[in-house]
Specification:
mainly beta; 63% strand; 4-stranded antiparallel sheet
Length: 119
């Protein structure tokens, strides 16, 4: 199977920066896309940034110009550089990996990493 592990969360003051990492391992023949989602208390999980083969990159409007997603294909790793953090960025951040296997796509999620931005 596939394991997805995030790291890099923590507590930071508003205006600060954090870098999240997500590594996928296991039976992986091809990764079609990797992405970051977040879920704040009482809210639905939402897309933050997504990077697919091409590369095709998409950001949520709320993070454009502040967050940068990047990917190391050889290491099956995706990063999220978060700058100019705001209290409203506080959430659990989840990594999703889309694996291609036998012409089908399968989603794998990490356990999440907490990001807390203090005002």
């Amino acid at each position: 199977q596939v394991q997805v592990v995030e790291s890099g969360g923590g507590l930071v003051e508003a205006g600060g920066s954090l870098r999240l990492s997500c590594a996928a391992s296991g039976t992986i023949f091809s990764i079609n896309a990797m992405g970051w989602y977040r879920q704040a208390p009482g809210k639905q999980r939402e897309l933050v940034a997504h990077i697919a083969n091409g590369p095709y990159i998409h950001y949520a409007d709320s993070v454009k110009g502040r967050f940068t997603i990047s990917r190391d294909v050889a290491k099956n790793t995706v990063y999220l550089q978060m700058n100019s953090l705001k209290p409203e960025d506080t959430a659990v951040y989840y990594c999703k990996v889309v694996v291609l296997r036998a012409l089908n796509e399968y989603d794998y999620w990490g356990q999440g990493t907490q990001v807390t931005v203090s005002s």
